[in-house]
Task: structure prediction
Amino acid sequence: MSPMDWQALLITLKMAVLATSLLLLLATPLAWWLATTASRWRPWISTLTTLPMVLPPTVLGFYLLILMGPSGPLGRLTETLGLGTLPFTFTGIVLGSVVHSLPFVVQPLQNAFAAIGPRPLEVAATLRAGPWDTFCSVVLPLARPGFITAGVLGFCHAIGEFGVVLMIGGNIPGKTRVLSTQIYNHVEALEYAQAHWLAGGMVLFAALGLLLIYGFGQPRHGGRP
Result:
């Protein structure tokens, strides 16, 4: 691996860690609301949350680029706050990764929360546990497999970002160039040996992530998943 490869690897890991942390913070209350609410807005919010999963990454990246650009509402807000615009910055690709990976974190959490059912919450209420105490002491332990699955899927998906990151961040060495774009650069330059090292490492990483999900991210009943 060349110094540029190591640089892309470090940027990718940093982006994935930050994106996954933000995703878990944002997705947990959203997934809980989706799993427990009877609001008429639930189908609309579910649609918006899942939309990044079915949209082509270039389409999502294009509209995020417009949104965060100088003429977009988010771009105008960040400029007003003195932060400049987000396209072609590390912060921009983290934000794009969060939007693109959101459904991969929300859905496992939503399924885990829905599987708990109302009975444990009712028992906690009879013991005079408050909503926050119930969530921390009852919901979070029971939903642990869902958090493992959500965290691993969100992290792996952020590691493999290409289309959204390329549209928002470009391919700037040392700033927005991640592993996926570095592989693309090697292939364009016909450097297949270097591309094999990076691509093979990502295949191994994805397989380990799935093994973690199937080994620890599923509820067990009677010793069986």
In short: The chain has eleven helices and no strands.
